Amino acid sequence: MHQLHLCIGRITTQGQLSNNRFSRMEYCRHALLTACHGFNRHLSVLQTPGGFLYDYQDLRKYETGRSSTYEHFSAITENAEKLVSQLMDDRPLKTLLKTKTDFVTLGIDVFDINNFRIQAELVCTYNTNRQKVIYWTGKSYPTKEQENSLIYCPDLKTHFQEINGLPFLILGCHDLNLFSPRSRASISKGSYKDKTISEMQALSDRFKPYVVLQHPHYTDSPNIWQPGWSGIKRWVPSARIYSSGIHYANREGKHPRKPLQSILLRTALGPVENFTVPLIGT
Fold first, then answer.
1. Residue 62: helix, strand or coil by DSSP?
2. Residue 150 sits in a domain of what CATH number?
3. pLDDT digit string (tens) for 31-45?
4. Which of 31, 77, 113, 167 is the most exposed place for a label (fewest CB within 10 A)?
């Protein structure tokens, strides 16, 4: 696709969403259908927030933290792909997606059925023409609280994807902070985080992504992601378009700190159009 015709469509969800896998799937199907009707032009990519879909698997046999393996990560994505197939096994949705967008990026959180602290945070790229998932990646750079409980995506190369002939960098939630000047200044030399940042930077230098899409969970202030996006501008100069997927809510259940419009304006660059899914019950 020619760069001049590239357009990202960003779905914004809001409020408290159901943690029930099946209720969440119905909500996601409704959100995708509603958003497709809301966008007035054909999109290159329709972007969702992190944790857009929920899944539950038995994750006890998988290594977590720095011991995470790509073999285990791939086993989780293989099961999660069945959930994506269920979501997309809807003729009206498949038909509408194909007419409105070339690709969809879906944030999917997978929780252990016995211990919800153990989880993997995934992002898949779905080709609407081929009607299949073509890429999987996931969070590789955990928050401090997740360092031992998250099943990492240990293959950083999975973040770098060719979509419609253009180089994309697809990030999980906290992965954006791999580029944050604040994060880079605070890490210890030779540490896991230091090595991860160095590898991600080397891959970015080689791949030269034109588009960067991040898939965070809760965002109620643009300040959360400003350091990361300032780092993208500094250390990924090839990027001309970027966007954070937005679930507009406060993680602690409080009132959002900033208006949604200010968040949308300060978490995107370039041809990014927005559609906010109405609150449930409105």
1. coil
2. 3.60.110
3. 999 999 999 999 999
4. 113
Residue 259 lies in a domain: yes
| Within-domain flag for 24 | yes
Q: Cα separation of 199 and 157, whole Å?
A: 9
Give the pairing type, strands 119-127 and 132-138: antiparallel
How many folded domains does the chain comprise? 1
Are the CB atoms for 168 and 134 separated by under 8 Å? no
Cα angle at 58 between 54 and 62, to 5 degrees? 110
What confidence score (pLDDT) does residue 280 get?
Answer: 65
In a domain, 3, yes or no: no
DSSP string across 81-97: HHHHHHHH--HHHHHHH
Domain boundaries, position 26 = 8-276
Which string of DSSP letters, residue by residue, matches 168-220?
A: EEEE-TGGGGGG-HHHHHHSPTTSHHHHHHHHHHHHHHHH--SEEEE--S--S
pLDDT band at residue 278 under the 50/70/90 scheme: confident
Residue 55, helix vs strand vs coil: strand
Q: At what angle do helices 91-100 and 21-38 cross, to 10 degrees?
A: 40
Q: Which residues make beta-bridge pairs with 268?
A: 243
